[in-house]
Protein 1
Amino acid sequence: MSAAELRATLERLCKERPDLRFLSDSEEMTPYLREWRDAYRGEAAAVALPSSVEDVVALVKLARECDGVHLVPQGGNTGLVGGQIAFDSEHAITVSMARMNRILEIDPANNTLTCEAGALLADVQAAADDANKLFPLSLASQGSCRIGGVLSTNAGGCEVLRYGCAGDLLLGIEVVLSDGSVWDGMRPLRKDNTGYDLKRLFIGAEGTLGIITRAVLRLFPKPRSLMCAFVGIDSPSAGLSLLREAEEMSGGEVTAFELMPRIAIEMVERHTPSIRIPLESDAPWYVLLEISSSREEKDAIDRTEKILANAFDKNLILDGTIANSKAQEENFWSIRESISESQKREGGSIKHDVSVSVSRMPEFLERATRAVEEALAGIRVVAFGHMGDGNIHFNLSQPTDMERDAFMLESERFHRIVYDIIADMGGSISAEHGIGIAKLEENARHKSGVEQNLMRALKRALDPGGIFNPGKLID
Amino acid sequence: MSAAELRATLERLCKERPDLRFLSDSEEMTPYLREWRDAYRGEAAAVALPSSVEDVVALVKLARECDGVHLVPQGGNTGLVGGQIAFDSEHAITVSMARMNRILEIDPANNTLTCEAGALLADVQAAADDANKLFPLSLASQGSCRIGGVLSTNAGGCEVLRYGCAGDLLLGIEVVLSDGSVWDGMRPLRKDNTGYDLKRLFIGAEGTLGIITRAVLRLFPKPRSLMCAFVGIDSPSAGLSLLREAEEMSGGEVTAFELMPRIAIEMVERHTPSIRIPLESDAPWYVLLEISSSREEKDAIDRTEKILANAFDKNLILDGTIANSKAQEENFWSIRESISESQKREGGSIKHDVSVSVSRMPEFLERATRAVEEALAGIRVVAFGHMGDGNIHFNLSQPTDMERDAFMLESERFHRIVYDIIADMGGSISAEHGIGIAKLEENARHKSGVEQNLMRALKRALDPGGIFNPGKLID
């Protein structure tokens, strides 16, 4: 079947199903086929825009009937590993969930929110907030990413330390399966031991096992106050000790713990002069620490001050300050959030989104930094991120006196160095971002044969016809 | 192959593998074949007692080679639905994990504990405690149950409200698969998005997909103090409001919230005179509320008093008291923990372990109570349990003037009434206990065809030869 025939078939389907739409004009399709950073430019026969689960069922059935046709589910097109991009102008249909974006129900007494899979993460956060609850998952892309994508990539963020990743915030799900049937697992239940944990199959599955159409999400009490501290420390080891102390003293209420090296702070200062570093003295490393509290602000400040004072006494921190206004808190966070952008302006950057045991983070940083510095004089290690959950963005900025392209040609060499250390330390080569197409080969290199076989067995069981996002996550 | 031939084969295997043992003497096998309450008396050709993952691999390979032979994994033989009992004297081998009981490693800075699957839950709790951490899963059977069983049944307990079920406390796992390969998923990582969430397949799988041999468990900071309150309320609705208020005011630090009807309290008083009810006035319902805190006791008491005072002001509670010593706290819990035993002494009891949305618990209790009372005059509803996570033990004690056997003959009729209401309300017919063999038929009646097909597809993919616990969980 040619692309034209496929589009004609879609056309007929849309006549039967007037709420289903699709795009086939090249310009109209571009926003769905071009990865948001332009890292990938895909191709598809069409971009379908279903409005209901029945539309999605119809698309799945169409894919089954048309030889070789496959579906590429897409949320907000904010993924970082190309999992959401179609690469086949004849056989691929991108299925954008953007029109299925409604918040359906909030049940505050049950601490649940029900929504369609195309609901924007920011809308879910806002709806929870309106009900005086918290949906504790924040991402830079939250204004654009959608719940189905968030679940399919098991997205994290800065609060994983306290609340877990997307999969930990899910109670129920509705999925269209490869045979066109709809699995209604929309159970708003905290406890249900009546079978396999089927919903978890789809978490982090990157659209390769089914298309999520609805979800029941968990809500949490809103903290009454959030204390934000910016501290200088002399080493990641000190950071680790600070983390554990803060956790003990706050009863597990540390909501975020972000590590930043001085080099990153300098880059931010250089490229974003409006951002002020809130400490006077320099430190080799910095931590942004956030502690939430159910109490009034004064009590939360007292406790955070106690935590910092205790850290000073134990020589865990060199300097530190607590934000005493929302504006100050936002300033602290803007430092952290500006690192990526600032690093981009420093030239070529070779990136790794890795994790190890939290306890081995200092060891990883030391080993990996030494290894890459030995491999190339002048390389600038910019390692920052979610130390609290063992996840670091181990990024390498080019030597200042090197050509960008020449540096980027070294990517494979440095991936080899970094990922081999990760493998040796039992870590993950993709802590947050997933595999998609970007890390397919690397993953196959590191994942055991037994595990790859298990994954293939699952894929064969749930999608024997290979209609869901082939060529992503697993070969 | 006859049972005798199977045992001869096992004998030969044990010669090759001197650390592997098995039992074939009828009396020796009894503790492994008899369900702990004597609800089931099973049969097996042998009870194998592996000492290592290699022993388990050898047993799996033996089962593959010997036609029709299957394995029934067993932890502490404390399961409540017969999933751990073998029922075939010719073809079944019970695989008891009891000898693989070591705690292997504790990494406090990573908040993880690694153990073999046969480790006793009580030992895991103690090891965590020694490291000044908390493994927050407590069960009545914790002195006997083992981690593999706890994971395979996704066991809950009283702290699910705060910490989740067993599956939420797991980071990594090692499993022997049906082809005899070992999946090493022992990753002590909080974040790892490199594939399907394979470890969750085995959570609640009741030994039907593989044999768990090791696990990496999550640890938490130990609360500095635990405040326990016993309150009288006038209805489950008031209880629900109290729960949400307590959650708000404590920032989600409500660790347990147990509902008890007055009839249960009266039964406890009747059968355990040593237990004192700590309130003077009667109430139609009672709640045992536990709030943990990272602060000194005085602060925690203050806060709990505030929570109760607030509840009084809003007419949510009729009476209440806070335990002011460990002994008092234990007394409060002993009331809750004596309900089952006391109810047993009141004659026949027809039991249901069900869950609904927390917000619909009052509605369920009202509907189900009315329905069973209409069905049989004099029936005594004893509904108690984990209201905080929507799970109630909806038990029915016989009318005082009825023959026990005659009442128990009504079991099917009452299951029909109760489970039909549960199904209508989108609840679960087995919130905690699992399916095993006890609820196989009931589950098949309620679970959608799509879901049963999905489960069968998984079972076929992971255990095509049907060697793992056939006849349990799914047909």
Protein 2
Amino acid sequence: MGAKRQILIIGAGRSATSLIQYLLDQSEKENLHLVVADMSLDLAQNKIKNQSNAIAVKLDIKDTAQRRELIKQSDIVISMLPAALHLEVAKDCILYGKSMVTASYVSPEMQDLDEQVKAKNLVFMNEIGLDPGIDHMSAMQIIDRIKANGGKMILFESFTGGLVAPESDDNLWNYKFTWNPRNVVVAGQGGAAKFIQEGTYKYIPYQKLFRRTEILNIDGYGKFEGLANRDSLKYREIYGLDAIKTMYRGTIRRVGYSKAWNVFVQLGMTDDTYEMENTKEMSYRDFTNSFLPYHPYDSVEIKLRHYLHIDQDDIIWDKLLELDLFDATKKVNMEQATPAQILEKILSEKWTLKPDDKDMIVMLHKFGYELNGENKQIESSMLIKGKDQHFTAMSDTVGLPVAMATLKILNGEITKPGVQIPIIKEVYEPILKELREHGIIFQEKEVPYLGYKSMS
Amino acid sequence: MGAKRQILIIGAGRSATSLIQYLLDQSEKENLHLVVADMSLDLAQNKIKNQSNAIAVKLDIKDTAQRRELIKQSDIVISMLPAALHLEVAKDCILYGKSMVTASYVSPEMQDLDEQVKAKNLVFMNEIGLDPGIDHMSAMQIIDRIKANGGKMILFESFTGGLVAPESDDNLWNYKFTWNPRNVVVAGQGGAAKFIQEGTYKYIPYQKLFRRTEILNIDGYGKFEGLANRDSLKYREIYGLDAIKTMYRGTIRRVGYSKAWNVFVQLGMTDDTYEMENTKEMSYRDFTNSFLPYHPYDSVEIKLRHYLHIDQDDIIWDKLLELDLFDATKKVNMEQATPAQILEKILSEKWTLKPDDKDMIVMLHKFGYELNGENKQIESSMLIKGKDQHFTAMSDTVGLPVAMATLKILNGEITKPGVQIPIIKEVYEPILKELREHGIIFQEKEVPYLGYKSMS
């Protein structure tokens, strides 16, 4: 068989589980040897068990000598590090002539490496997880097909959500954390949401974001709601849709989530920019009261109801109660915490997946196009449930495309050099095909064109 | 008489008018020679007219050689530059052993110079304009007196506003720009408002700031509203009020202003963090519509009313109409403008002072204290109207204390070395006394203690 081909996987967190398992499953047939490197040796060892085609190593990513040694010995490198840490790995990969795969957005600094990557004929494949990743591939496959058939794209909307599966859904929010809770708490901050509808540019500030949802329907699973992502506009260029009249990307939640979440936004509980006073001794009730006007005897409850106009019979109220937001005995017990950190703690007590809980990924694309003078629409959706708390839908949908792309680059099936994202046929066709074999399947249907002009 | 004492004034903008005039008026008696330096020679010349005791010079503040030469030749330096530009001047002042005066907040970098300033026995007096400035002095005078009489401070609230005088008030907002319009448009952004009420810390996010006003009363001038400034908490230490139970600093507007301004906040029109698309061709109506949901035929008007729940008979609506926010013929006509820049332009068309308009400064302090087991309260207020469009109330209240402090440092009446703010008796007593002679007078009265505990 010759020498084994060595794959270095940096970062063995939750998102790496399915990715490592896939490569282990392929290791005999493909003659692979995996090196799983993490800050925590335990974590790395847990992921590979006692498999013979893999070793776990402890790696401090700041240790340049060790990092470089590992990269130098490998044939290809997967970085599952937080996005901000990819760059040093990327530079080392250029130094030693190794291709690289990440599930993260291409940073400007990563993009700047494009020429050097091309000069060494390497493939740096990024944004090949779920979102970004499967969204790019599944959208581009249909967009390219519509164009190839002579259609002209006029509308593209795309939504993704990481949710809890219906069978594990036992709270009023119909939501649990299936990914980094911090990202959920601060979601939507740092800039207005930007998109275009029927040729009109639209902007939603953070303070209105959770009140501008639209209802989505997924066959067999009922209604969901979509809320706008930060910047939908830049995808016009990336997807080759510069002349498109409607371009909207969003996040999926169960119906009613966003309107209740807006309570946190309006109170100021999602703010991560300052530390509150006395957070060690603060009760959950104190925390809530911090954002309400002072009154010598009115209750926190009546002040909040009045402040945010929450009627006696509004289900939002029960959602707040469920979180113990008015509990005077539960303590925050954190030093110098921001509102967002405290909210994350409060939510985590209720929204953490139990051992038997399953997560669920939902993705929905809407493609509007003109063909032979007629307006048409295709909807394409994917709904994946997790197997267990390790092999979650999130882990599968993020990790499998990363693993598949890695192997295909190693095997010379994906060859286009440079800093890439998976929007070309050479990449998305074989990976979407293999994802289908793993049960990650899009349902496609034609629907009447529902572009906005038809309302009049 | 001996050689004239040279005062260098860097920056000859609006805020320097009264300051320069005061020093010109004193120049014979005090044997002064003024050097007024500005980017614009015209502006500097305009301020000194043809007075014999002053010259105007053109200065590029980045021209180190020229800047240093001017500082070296002077006996004391006043910097009326934007706050960010003080530092180079300050360093040169240390180099050549000159004292310095500014109306700006002490930056951390300025504070870091304290030891060097003390080592050279110089006075760097900052925050000696209106707000900060007169607020510090007038508050500390009463706080020190209450303490000296054996009182214990339990409440301090302080409000300042730059408004239009009633006789020049001809719009529904009861507001015109009397200072930098940009600061008005972005006011309150960049962090939650923080204060303490009856021992309870309170935080207001930007999205609720303009709905958390309180009503203020100024004898003879009726009702105003106060809204919280960013950080009231840090003044506890500065004013020596560490154990105080209520500490609140705010901005004054005419009643109803904030609730209407909240429309801009909720729409996202005050956002200065991104550039909108197509702002060259955009009409005011397009601008407003950018922040509203798309609809093929519903009007911008009905969408806005519905979105923000503005009733048919709500005066807020007339305030919006007055600004031409729904005008489809008026063009923004700016390249790559942010929402805040566009809003500033729209507002400036209506809110700019006319040649005969007068501005007005309002300041109100509330001091609650315990004396001999009794709770007492003092209210102290100041209301100043401008003389004309050059000698505005803003120019007087910012410039006169700066000028007075400069002369008193020059004359050895203010001597405490270091990076200072005007919170000690040596500074505030003589300056408040002289301000009274110029008509800047506080009205003080005892009122029943209205601390919040008394509500119950």
